[in-house]
Amino acid sequence: MIFKYLLQKEFIQIRRNAFLPKLIVVFPIMIMCVMPWVMNMEVKNIKVEVVDNDRSPLSRQLLHRIEASGYFDFQGQPSTYSQALKDIEMNRTDIIIEIPRGFSVDQRNGLQPQILIAANATNGTKGSMGVAYASQIFASQGQGKLQASMPVSTLFLFNKNLNYKVFMIPALMAIVIMLMCGFLPTLNIVGEKEAGTIEQINVTPVSKMDFIMAKLIPYWLIALFIITVCMLISWALYGITCQGNIALVYLLSMLLALFFSSFGLIISNYSDSLQQAVMVMWFFVVILMLMSGLFTPARSMPAWAFATTYVNPMHYFIDAIRTVFVRGGGFSSIAHQLGALAVIASIMAVWAVLSYRKNR
Amino acid sequence: MNKFNSFVIKESRHIFRDRRLMLILFGMPVVMMLLFGFAITTDVKNVRVAVVTASSDHLTGRMVERLAVSEYFNIVATVPTPGEAEQLICDQQVDMAVVFGPDFASNGSGIQLIVDASDPNMAQQWSNYATNVLMGAQQGGVSVKMLYNPQMKSAYNFVPAIMGMLLMLICAMMTSISIVKEKEKGTMEVLLVSPVKPIMIIVAKVVPYLMVAFGILAVILLMSRFVLGIPIQGGLTWIILISVIYILLALSLGMLISNVAKTQFVALIMSVMMLLMPIVMLSGMLFPVESMPLPLQWISAVVPTRYYIDAMRKLMIMGVGIGEVMRETAILSGMTLLLLLLSLTKFKNRLE
Amino acid sequence: MAITAAITVRNISKTYGAVKALDNVSFQVEKGELFGLIGPDGAGKTSLFRILCTLLLPDNGQAQVEEFDTVSQMSQIRKIVGYMPGRFSLYQDLTVEENLTFFATLFGTTVKDGYESIKAIYSQIERFKDRKAGALSGGMKQKLALSCALVHQPQVLFLDEPTTGVDPVSRKEFWQMLRLLKQRGITILVSTPYLDEVRQCDRVAFLDKGRLMDVGTPEDILERFANVFNPPPVEREDGNTTNEEHVIEVRHLVKAFGHFHAVDDISFFVKKGEIFGFLGANGAGKTTAMHMLTGLNQPTGGEGYVAGFDIRTQHEQIKRHIGYMSQKFSLYDDLTVAENIRLFAGIYGMDSKEISRKTDELLAKLNFSEHKDSIVASLPLGWKQKLAFSVSIFHHPEVVFLDEPTGGVDPATRRQFWELIYDAAQQGITVFVTTHYMDEAEYCDRISIMVDGKIKAIGSPDELKRNYGQPDIDHVFTLLARQATRGDN
Fold this sequence. Notes:
heterotrimer, A: alpha/beta, abc type-2 transporter like fold, four-stranded mixed β-sheet, 15 helices, 5 strands, B: alpha/beta, 2 domains, 14 helices
């Protein structure tokens, strides 16, 4: 039962640290209270300016429709296009709509007058969404005949109100687990190296397995705590609850925590200084996170990049947790991800044990 | 001057001697630029579609054909009932389903799209694209002009964001450790007892990181121009000048953390969790500031990265003159001055 | 008297929380004096050094260095003093020469200008000038730190236990150099736990628990406080438990780092129940040899057996049968006394009941029961060392390895420490110890002296003294170590 004593030691050390217990409690709460409001890629309040060169009742009618639409934030009516362009440069507007001179006359005469929509496409998503909304407004005014003949309706599954928080809360859980269970173990072994206590452990008959497992388990429990806090806040503050089996959420989180803490220990085993360990960890974490589909759709990536998701545990995790948490999928829906995650996490755990060297 | 040089040389040795660190420092921008340039996009692509149809009439076939040939959609399944399609979506086999009613051809009863809305933005875009494709998109009466980014590359949006994040990460995090480290190792005692002035210790510590930051800035700019093919529109001088201000700001911030924190561990945690997280989240790097609730917008007003990214987007991508970024420049300069003063006053001339 | 004081300390007090580090201390040091600051651990020596170096503000009282006030005239003082803090304070990732150059320019001088004043010491490490400071052995680091503190030829020199971990020969050279500096008129304030060094001071001040007990000539002070500084030698009950069984057996052991042979073909044995002193100059290869015996390092060549196990293949079995205490203090600073004992005892497979029973026994024996739940970081060094030793033999190993266990500890505590060692030997635990205190070497049953990676002499202290015709081990050691051709591993 050597293991028991090692584990006790790790817990005492975490508890006695002046900073860690506070961090473990406060950090997930803070993140969950603030970030869902922030992580909102929903495009709304697109600022729009209209250059009305026609000044006819028809053009004014269009103007009203833009003002009234929920998507746009009407900024005003500059007199010329170049003036409006200046406003784009100053970030006062995102989209310029220019109604040509003689628009209503041409329209009546059956000519096809062209309305110009110019969007600041620096932010591609915002630009294209803005254009799409604006086009819809004009399309419904121009020729509504086709649409009437063949209505296309859309049913948004799992998230009827298109609430962005539903998308982001599982991602936040992943991020918090990653930061806490990834960085703290990374600092742990390097810390013992710098303090010299690791040498004392190395001359004892402690097995590598016991030593590393004792370092991993506290972070498992921290992950459990974090996930509980996250789900509670998500329910209390945002009214978003887990659609599927909560046990699956815990299982997934444990596997992800196992992966990240093993990964942190591996880096720690190979590093000489705290600075080095943290930078290396940060490097990998950023890549894993960006390539996982946490924020952006993984399938939009080119084939070579998508191929990397097969070894990216973050990808399996985020896929699976969204399936359980948002879509209400059961075990069979995520069996494949669970399996992959378990395999990757156990490989990393074994590596963490092997890379720790008591004798050189 | 001699003293100063030898101080700078010493600090540079600490950094440049750590090979692994250097590899990360320069590998990070390269990898991130490549990822954002070529891998990560929010384009509508490879959307997996299930077709729900009971009959296989001519009109349905034509519609399905339209979807199949479009560059956005891959049809991966055909199922008879919407219920089965929903199950497929739930299992992550498909992203959306197109439901044709049983009497679609005869009645023209319409089409229903069932979309996985766990990602609301993408869901909306998929539904828009699909509607356009199915209807044989016509945008009569409207001509569209995509300013500054005609090919709609995500990289245009991301490059300034990467600059803002990496420069902050490297400058603030690396310097934050540097002073604490000397305190922890006991070398600070010796430095303090020597006749060097605190300002010199600080400046000498900053210089090597300044050089590293310049190197990284150069890597990013060159890569975005020649690898990602983003035309750098604005004046290079201004871009560099504002970057210098921003780098100085990040360095002073790192110094401040370093002077306040007692151990390397705390300094690292502080810079990773309390500095980088808010910066990534609140700067408008990934998430638009204007979609945030008001109190958070106020907080984001003090995040310097926000102004830097704004300025860089305007200068690099939109190619405006310095006049348009005067406000950002002024704010950044002010913040730099404030942080510099603060970290100087926080520098302790004695031990606790 | 027209003597001008170089250092004046008047009614200085300093408190940390509830601990009174310095309590109304006053004394004067004359210009050009070699002044010793002595006292047990936690006496307030380091705090006093820091106040005089302007690093700390005193709560009460004033202090002047060369007539500059330590509070208001900080920058003047910092120009004229040299300071060597108690713990190693150089840049580990810079080479020896880079460190020296850096500190020279820091004080506005160059290595060339200051070379004369550091020659005696620096010449010993100069051949390693391209090696990183972090790769030097303990004593070598100390020599480098000294060179760095001396290179700018300060007017007043503050040395906080400068020779801790330095071998006897180098210590002698170091004090010769201090006398040289004194002749040049430099005022030196130095603290030391070595009695032979105390005797070389002009005057000494004795601090205890923050209070100044007395100032006077070394002879006076040492005599008046003989119970503290000159405790009667440790009496060993004559229960010679050694038998002929060899618990450590080493044959032609070699450890090479590249072309460098840190341990170069050593052979020796240690009998069961023996106290074996493993002596050698800094960098002679002691620590490397010990690391091989304890299974931290793989030998490059030769063979060795500890407690009957092969050090090449059975290092994990060896670890079950040994205890180890390193020169760096090796308990967890953030655990309490009881928690540390519990952890290490648990690691060796004791069960909870036995642990708590034996913990109480041990603490009672050490008179330490009231500190059972104190955090280790808050204990004085001497206590930590005793505790670390007790923990290392808590599981009753066959052999215990002690790597400079008494470095930087005052004489009275060292004596208590050796009582513990004798006690352990009495119980049949073989003790394998390295030390730089030659009086401790005399306490051993047998000793070996390592020079340049080889064992130059081995035998009982009396045998060695006889064979080399020297009055004590100190002289034997000096004789052998002076033959060294290399300074470091």
